[in-house]
Amino acid sequence: MKMSELPAVERHVKLSELGEFANRLSVMTDELRDQILAPRPRKTSPVFTIGELSEMCGVDRQKINYLATKEGGDLPPGQAHGTGRARIFTLAEARNWVKQASSIYQTALVSGQGRHRGRVLITANFKGGSCKTTTTMCIGQGLSLRGRRVLVIDLDPQASLSELCGLYAEKDVTWEDTVLPFIYEPTLEGGLSSKVQSTYWDGLDVIPAHNYLHDAEFHLPTAQKDNPKYEFWSILRRGIEPLRAQYDYIILDTAPSLSYLTLNGLMAADAMVMPLVPESLDFISSVSFWSLFSEIAAGFVEHELDKTYEFISVLLSKVDYATTSSAPVVRSWAQRAYADWLSTVEIPASSVMSNGALAFSTVFDLSRADGVAKTLARVKQPLTEYCKWIDDQFVSQWRAEA
């Protein structure tokens, strides 16, 4: 018996058909976002137990309970929870405790004294899927839990960081809300300060992104061509400078390419973090980044535009510790290549973390009461250590400035 032939699939695609296709996908993604992020508020910050507060502040549990319930005390009392002496604290209350009760040095921004100069960090990597955006958000959250005031700036037209901050990149954000108006007109009144938005996370603000940020890749080189004296690499640095007095940290998330906006970020930053998944293609991609950036940097140096990074840190992320993993081999490559740049902290892979990403969440978003929070402790703990390491690099400088 002769089998009937299946009809051939029509695979031709016209440019004129892509608009309808994109509209269809847009409707679909809007529906998915509504399912994942609804109901409003789209994201809520976690709550903290006395045990967690004890770890954050380095203060005995009994003392925290005493200070929380002390009549006329200055510290937030939290809310009684369950039976016995259990209490829970909001994120804002927990940060208040860290500022007042911990031994963590608090900056002039908190104390209101001295000339405070916040530090600018940038996360950069050519390779997609390197956890760059998630790492940016986690560093921002982790530093805020040390009492720091943090601003994250999304420079990636994909706007994933903006989504992690609880914004619909295409619905809640227009191009005017991004850094783009300042790129067009660096003398804009209010500068980048007027673009700052608060988020669901106490102590963390955002300047979001929009897909129109791609326009910067046309505007900046055109402006340079029209005016050879135009310093395209310094626009973002000048826009960020006034914000240093308002934040302890300003963290830039970049596109997975060495774009004009990324170059602006690299020239504005005081320090750089490169998340690196220990797989062969990711490692080779990281080598390509440094090869290309070094060529561009050489051009800057020729024009006496050399700069110094406080540190460059390569952070191994999504590390698979299974016996069949390629991580040990690639780790050895990274150790040879990056030496002291390679952080001793590693962020392990976690299937639960991947599921969290689908919900536009990070490990810091979950409370201990959540079912998967304990599972994520092995990811959260090294991230907390890494944030402390970053913070320690600048504390001595802030003490001198105070």
From TrEMBL:
<dbReference type="Pfam" id="PF13614">
    <property type="entry name" value="AAA_31"/>
</dbReference>
<dbReference type="InterPro" id="IPR025669">
    <property type="entry name" value="AAA_dom"/>
</dbReference>
<feature type="domain" description="AAA">
    <location>
        <begin position="119"/>
        <end position="280"/>
    </location>
</feature>
<dbReference type="InterPro" id="IPR027417">
    <property type="entry name" value="P-loop_NTPase"/>
</dbReference>
<protein>
    <submittedName>
        <fullName>Chromosome partitioning protein</fullName>
    </submittedName>
</protein>
<dbReference type="InterPro" id="IPR050678">
    <property type="entry name" value="DNA_Partitioning_ATPase"/>
</dbReference>
